[in-house]
Amino acid sequence: MEFSEVENHHDYYSSEEDFVHTQDACGLFIIYDVALRDLEELEHSLLLVASLYIQRNAGQGASDSETDLQFWAQLDVDRLAVLLDLWICEEAFLRSKMQVTQAATDNGFKSVVPKL
Hints:
By secondary structure, this protein is mainly alpha-helical. The chain is built from 3 helices and 2 strands; from the N terminus they run ββααα. InterPro entries: CCDC162.
């Protein structure tokens, strides 16, 4: 399939600060479907981790009755704050990975690749 009005069929990448932007040949900003799938998987994983820690919190409290629904539902837990903390930690982790990758590429992988 050919497009006569488009000279370049490749995507363009630009970065400002810590953000990488992807544009198609027409200059429109795009997001790859793989990136969206990765984001959905990350969201699912963070929800699982948050649920795990909220449920662990439920097991630590003392309740006189097993039918105490407010206790078992953990109504005192701010779920949004838990998810925000997880997102902040994930962002810090990814920034650290970027710094390690940048340092390795700047150094020519000399300190990362073992000598044989």
